[in-house]
Give the backbone structure.
Amino acid sequence: MLTSKLTLMSLTWILALFVSISLRIAGIVHPRPFFINDFLIWLLVFGPSLCLLIYFSLKRAFFTINSVN
């Protein structure tokens, strides 16, 4: 049976793999140095934390709904 820790760890690894592959493809498509906008930097820095915040908030909300009924 999958635990929440294993699920979260797998999700994190899958997201990291997706970002890595995306950056590699971007490097192949645009071999010259390119200007990166500030939004992308902020998204890469704070995006995973926001995703985890949303995940845990939804999990808590659904857990409390199911435990009340």
